[in-house]
Amino acid sequence: MNFRIAVICGTLLLAMGGCQKTDNINPNVPATVNPGVVLPQVLYNVSNTLTLSAFEINNELMQYTCMNNTFTEVQRFKLQPANSNQLWNLYNRLRDLNDIDRMVENGTGHPNYRAMSGILRVFILSVITDAFGDVPYTEAGAASAGNIFTPKYDTQETIYAGLIAELQQYTQAIDVNGALDFGGDLVYQGDMLRWKKFGNSLLLRLLMRTSEQQPQQASALIGQLLADPAQYPVMESNADNFIYRYQGSFPDVFPLAPSYVRDFDFKYKSVSAFVVDSLTKFGDARLHQFARPTNASADSDNPVYVGLPNALPVTESANYNGGYNYQSYLGTRFQSDREPAIWMTAPEVFFLKAEAAIRNFYPGDAQQAYHDGIKHSFEYWDAPFSADYLTHPSVAYDGGLPKVYLQKYFSLFFTGIEAWSDYRRTGYPRLVPGPTNVNDGRIPSRLPYPLSEQSLNQNNYHEASQRIGGDDMNSKMWWQQ
Amino acid sequence: MRVMKITMLLTLCCLLNVSANTYGQTLAVKKSNATIQEILEDIRCQANVDFFYDADLFTDAKAISLDVRNATINQVLDRCFAGSPYIYSIANNIVTIKIDPEKQAALVSATATRPAAQTAGISGRVADENGAPLDGATVTVSENGRSTQTGRNGRFEIAVAPGTYTIRVSYISFETATLDGVTVSANEPRVLDITLKSTTDALEEVVVTSLGLTSAKRRIGTSIQEIKGEDINTAKSGNALTALQGKVAGMNMTMASGGMASSSRIVLRGESSLNINKNAALVVVDGVPINNNNGTGSSSDLSVDYGSGGAEINPDDIETISVLKGANAAALYGSRAANGAIIITTKSASKSTTMGVSVNSNTAFDQVLKVPDFQNEYGGGTGAGLTYYSYGDGPDGPNTSNSGHNWGAPFNGQRYIQFGSPLDADGNRVPIPWEAHPNNVRDFYELGRTLINSVSVSKTGELGDFRASYNNYAQTGIMPNTELKRNQFNLNATANISPKVAVRANMNYLNSQSDNLPIVGYGGSSPTYNFIWFERNADINWFKQYWVPGQEQVKQDYYFTWGDNPYFTMHEQLNDLNRNRVFGNAAVDYQILPELKAMVRTGIDYSGETRSSQRPYSSAVNINGLYRRQDLMYFERNSDFLLTYQGKETGNFQWSANMGGNNLQINTAQNTVTANGLTIPGVYNLGNASSRPAVSEANTVKTVNSLYAFADFDYKNQLFVQVTGRNDWSSTLPEGNNSYFYPSISASAILSDLLGIGSTWMNFWKLRSSFAQVGNDTDPYQTAAYYEYSTLPGAVGLPATMPNTNLKPEITSSFEVGTELRLLANRLHVDFTWYTSQSKNQILRSPLSISTGYTDKIMNAGKIKNRGWEALVTVTPIKNQLTWDITLTAAANRSEVVELADGVDSYVMASGQGATVEARVGGRMGDIYGIGLQRNEAGQVVYRGGVPVFTSNTMKIGNYNPDLIAGIKNTLNYKTWSLGLLFDGRLGGTIYSFTHVTGTEAGSLSNTLPGREEGIIGDGVVLNDDGSYSPNTERVSAYAYYRGYYRRPNVESNSFDASFVKLRELTLGYRLPGTLIQKTPFKSIQLNLVGRNLLLFAKAPHIDPETSFVSGGTIVPGIENAQIPSTRSFGFDIKLTL
């Protein structure tokens, strides 16, 4: 009898123990990959962020566009938490870039991947610091490798010094003959010389940013950079542009295309009176790219372009000039699937050169650079260029910076938040905030830190807020005049 | 597979057992005053023979005493049957016993010829309503006070002188029967057949506990509440579990929506997990857990509620539902029952040997319970001071019609060109009267209809019993063109293949199908959203033709730019469901020895489901159309065994011990293919995708192996102790941490017996207490780093969540004490429990500053405390021909967030529409945070520009958990009539209403009327340049005021007290009296008029505070998001028994 019990118990126990062990290995996704499959999504995600922050923040603050409907917050300088989150979330890409670095260090992928990831990291962090000021830099992205979960905020001065040093290092490290063994370069298709040009062009942008605070150092480094094109090639034509070309097949489409932004949300923005009136006055053909004729006139023989004045009271915006049908929306190209996302283009480099020459950072031909900038910008925007344009009184080169800055402003259409950064550094173009702005007529100098930092990185947040003079939109950038 | 092997082995053992030859063996039997069955059982054990006889063969047998040693089996049986009519035969170790008619006749004549007694007598039998004899009942002759107790088989004899007597028969937990005018004449014994009715809530009630076991309720040291099937299957609801609302003390149920196939979230005793999805109770059918995950679809504009698994149980198949309230009761179900368990036992054949057939037909009509209170004085248009309206640019002015706002011109009898304008001869729209259509939203909703028909047949035979049922469920919703159909088969069978071995099986197959389920929540394709943005001057009939003529399938006819024509949504934006599901279990019980029993069982729950969603061209959010197809598979298998050893009774002490094990495997698979954009309009096929469809695939496997043991100790049937221990091995935790043990101990004492204080007013007093721990694991694949596919095809990246290679199990510890009192002849019954629980090491995604490179990491952290009480009170104020029973349930729970992860003082559990549900240290679970109104030191609202300034930081707005949940049920019975009335509700709690936010912004709600003409000066202060405050004097338009004041995300001003009371159930029943149905083939006919959710009393405006927010598979209480309105239903129910 006991034997029977033993047999049964034994059987049951065996049955329990004999079941196959289930491992906890996820069968759906890979655990190891190569840099060539990680890189594309970095380019894609940052491209989306740049485009959306141009659309939602930069274009509103810089009066490229104006809200014609009820959601008027940004142009009235009522910044929403979501505005901050969008750019702060760029930190997510450090995860991917660190991962590429780790792979290269472990022998997977050509060292050029390491240099590319370094340049991209600098680009991303420069956009973040330009939006917020003091931000985590030295301890950023170190959760995985360094177990740092509350990164300290560095001063913008430290950050810029670090970014410039990093950028010099990684740009020089590029092996122009080295092939990307795993591909993944959706921008230059593995053309490493162009990466080098991008690195140096970005360096030029960042150095110029520091030029108000550290004119001597900026002058010296810019002079060195521009003096030796063989050693430090920069972008020379639109072929060198760092732009992301969407494939045009969902989800790889321009983030403002109807698959992502509904037509009526897109049309909450009319092009600003500042842009429409200026370009109309100059006879600038880029107008027909930036804006579309009013609905009411689109099919007529005489299509007209009407810009909306900035930050009018809501009802007045909606009814301005007789309503939406009588205002110009953004150009149709910005609703197409294949409109590229702009990181940095050759026209910007030309305008930087013009500024450097005017400010005597290097012995270049400022007028030539200014004209090249304009011509390349027209070319980029598919606008027919006529030499007459350069002689228009408001355009003709006069040796001064304001016109350079104004033309740079037009060329920076949809280039992330670069126009806003330039404005904060130079004060150009002279923009007048609209009547309903809630910041006493001051265009904001920064975005507030995301709300989540207050709870997730409390001590460092408070320290930084205090240091910059308060976490509000009027605390100045270090590089600001 | 493995379990089959076990089964085979067990069967083999049985065969060996039976064929063992034990003939020459001698037996020793010593029994006094025992039943024949007891003696046979003794023989069976000693001699290894089996007995075969009719179940009721020994019903009339007298008790016998026997003392034999060294006897053969024949000698023992001969002694045993001496003086009784039984004979036996032995063949192949099977002893067949039957009655020999000759022997019986001889015995009868012997009795008959016995000389008559001098005194007369009363004899008889006392039985319960089912005919089962009651041993130990007291029979008293009122006139002389003589009394006796019934013996074996409920028989009694009492000697009295000839005369007429009143006989009282009483028995614990049965109603006392009084028989008047019992006449006894000399020499003619009077034979009485007495049936006692059990009291409504019997003390010796047996309830289903863990693992499909039953136990006398008095033994149980934890809180457990049982609901009978008939309490939930009359006033039926689409979801069998929702019928528990208001009936279970401490159950907090949140519905995903008022729609069909509605998922429900059932929380018992408060929330203990920071993972908002992990707080729901486990659902178990016949001892085996089933899948009750929410079937709420994800992704913003495809938010459809496909129903949760627990909803698919046919209420007519339910015998009882036991609710095990906390970790204490459910310690043996392990991890998944840390939040309590709902144990459903399905019906099996009743004792009847004739075939039983029952038919149940339920018809219910559903009607919208509450729609928002719209204003009817101003029409479409946006902006302050609009004095006209125009559909398109017209003679009255530029177009004002495409905003969906109602800030337009007042209805003063004027005429404007509108969407519904007829065309004149030139094809131009003509002005029509400018007037409100007050019912334009209400008229959209239709009368829903639910037909539930079920039939069951059951029979008990020699071999065993079976019950089979078929259920057909057909519902059409309140939203046009929505439906849900279900066909369901159930078979419950037992076969006693030998006296020692029984095989049981319970299988369900069902198919749920719908051609269209409604979209829930706030989004372009949701009609409830579109009705917030719906012009008050619009006639709903304008929209029934929803295509632009000549552009069918290409362009919808609607003029409000950011939403869809509601009829277009209902007829073209379809969400289809087809689910096949099988669940059930098979078990073998084997009585190895008289004191040792083994059970092996395996249960599965498998469902295969296809969902598809189609969106035509010109949908507001999918202008090029969309087609999505999802295939989901869920498979869960629980294989378990249990050995039960019944210890020998020694003195007053008895014990039993159990040991068992469980192997759980859960496999899930999900494939989703989305075609964003269609090549040819109106063709819904993945091949018609205009670009490469987005594809995702996810498969998971999880295994948990467990061993457990528990022992029960019983002293004098008055003091009980149970100890349990369980160890789990989960595949989801890393090696080293994947084995975890957790114990429990519970005790109960019947104080009324122990202290000897039982009396007529104090019938019963029990005290119980228990302590338990439950360990918990996590989802698969959390412990290693993997890449995830980028939305960009051809790319991958690390996920934003940092994995944790060193996860530990979560542990919940809980303690409870309770008491149960029955007073005043069982007229008052009180059951009260107080509990406290604490969970720690919670596995959660702790958010990180994104500057770390990650958005969150998985970690063990957090400590949550819960404490509360539950009370169940039953009163019977009237008890005669009319009986009135009142059942009151009430419960309150308080939770406290004691700690979170290091350096984290807030954990966002869920968020929606600007509000977050956050756990903050020192706060409570379910706290809602959001932005509110800025106030000065004196507490006055600060205004700027005539509208309030909002705070820049979030603040606590309220808590979604109610302070008190209560229900009161009245049942009145008079003869064959019955009336049931159930009210339930919640007191306290907060709900953030997004209907209020947007309906106010749109000017659609009635609360936006004050100040429309003259404007409003907000009550508050303005900040002066010198830092002082002065009263706000700026008058602004109503348009600016309401939109400034209630603008999103002002969570504070749009949140309301969520208290409510509902008339949950009303039933009026009539059972046809026996005299009426005697000549019909029916055994019983019961008719009921039923109503559900008939009345709602709520403080929150515009909405039913019971609905909630659905976000990507999670039901978030406390946030209302333009849900489908809840419904009131009424109808009738017919139950026929053949």
> Sheet bearing the most strands of chain B, described?
22 strands, antiparallel, barrel
How many whole angstroms does the radius of gyration of chain B measure? 35 Å
What is the first-to-last residue Cα distance of chain B?
A: 40 Å
SSE order of chain A, as H and E?
A: HHEHHHEHEHHHEHEHHHHEHHHHHH
- Strand proportion of chain A: under 5%
What integer value in Å does the Rg of chain A equal?
Answer: 26 Å
How many helical stretches of chain B?
Answer: 11
Count of alpha and pi helical runs of chain A: 20
Q: Characterize the biggest β-sheet of chain A.
A: 2 strands, antiparallel
Helix content of chain A: 40-55%
Q: Which range best describes the helical content of chain B: under 10%, 10-25%, 25-40%, 40-55%, 55-70% or over 70%?
A: under 10%
Given as residue ranges, the uncertain stretches of chain A (5+ residues, pLDDT < 50) are none
Question: What would the principal axes of the Cα set say about the shape of chain A?
Answer: globular
Approximately what portion of the residues of chain B adopt beta-strand conformation?
A: over 45%
Tally of DSSP β-strands of chain B? 63
- CATH-derived topology of the largest domain in chain A: Serine Threonine Protein Phosphatase 5, Tetratricopeptide repeat
CATH structural class of the largest domain in chain A: Mainly Alpha
Task: Describe it.
The complex is a heterodimer of chains A (481) and B (1138). Chain A has 20 helices and six strands. Chain A is mostly helical and 481 residues long. Chain A has two domains: 1-31, no CATH class; 32-254 and 339-467, Serine Threonine Protein Phosphatase 5, Tetratricopeptide repeat, CATH 1.25.40. In chain A, helix 4 packs antiparallel against helix 5, helix 5 runs antiparallel to helix 7 (156-173) and helix 15 (346-358) runs antiparallel to helix 16. Chain B has a 22-stranded antiparallel β-barrel. A five-stranded mixed sheet of chain B has the order 15-20-21-18-19. A four-stranded antiparallel sheet of chain B has the order 8-7-10-11, with no helix packed on it. In chain B, strand 40 (810-823) and strand 41 (828-847) form a beta hairpin. The longest helix of chain B has 18 residues, at 2-19. Chain B has 1138 residues and is mainly β. At the A-B interface, helix 1, helix 2, helix 4, strand 2 and helix 10 of A face helix 1, strand 30, strand 31, strand 32 and strand 33 of B.
